[in-house]
Amino acid sequence: MVYSRDNCPLCDEFVAGLSRLLAPTDERIDVRDVDADPLTRRRFGLKIPVLTVDGSLVCHGRLDAAAVARLLAR
Predict the structure, then answer these.
(1) What is the pLDDT of residues 60-72, one digit of tens each?
(2) Is 56 helix (H, G, I), strand (E, B) or coil?
(3) pTM listed for this prediction
């Protein structure tokens, strides 16, 4: 899951990069607005964009392509 917010160029870049990494797979990106939920906003509001998998933090701020590749290799 990617936590993002509207009008965030860094978030747009993050999602676009993740889309390119996932293109050869059947994986989908679930993008959520970090500001839609107060708890999520408190947890991730200053770290966006944030990528989590099964509730665990994978990376935030900048896309970590190596971390995503490791997850895809599982």
Answers:
(1) 999 999 999 999 9
(2) strand
(3) 0.93
